[in-house]
Amino acid sequence: MKKLALTIVILSLVFASVSFGAQTPFLKYPTVVTSAGQSSEAEILTYVCDEMGIKYDYCDILSEKEFAAGVGLGGAKSGPGKHVTVTSSQAKGTKYESLWLVLGASLKGMGASGLSVEDEVSRLKKLINYAKDKKITLIALAIGGEIRRGLPGSLNEQIIDAVAPFCDVIITTKDTNKDGKFTQLAKSKNLKFIEIDSQESLLELIPEIFIAAK
Known about the structure:
The chain has 214 residues and is of the alpha/beta class. The chain is built from 8 helices and 7 strands. It has a 7-stranded mixed sheet, with helices on both faces. Strand 1, helix 2 and strand 2 form a beta-alpha-beta unit. Helix 2 crosses helix 8. The chain is globular.
């Protein structure tokens, strides 16, 4: 949490100086956010959404049932190892149009949520399969920097490989993509790819890529 608090301070201080090229909006509401690996990066995304007035629902250990329940997550509540936030403005039960999978593996985070690596990968695969079946846009967000990468077969790479190739969009920071893995993956799978300078760039990017809600 100390790392997240520091990041929030940095985001607030540099917002006025961040410059990001305009993007054509392509994401639809309602949208839902979950962690892919139980690191703290998902909290950075939700903070940015809050700052920029982006409405969303969030559950760090989102289940297929909660995802399928639509806006409101079927009444899901926070509890030990589980964090839920609902801010979407659409009626409860409205089908989600986009799902954010924020990449970053943390054994401590998974342990706190009572998940093994296998459990987490299985959960993510179920969400991906449901989204594909219902034509819900999947966004892989990788903003954790070099610390959220590793050698082939490492925990972080397992999560990346289980999620990113099956998404429709990959958004990453330059320091997370130093080896070009996400660039190559997006090219090979014909995925929409956006590389931003740093986490701070999300403050301008996120509002630009959502189609205004009717």
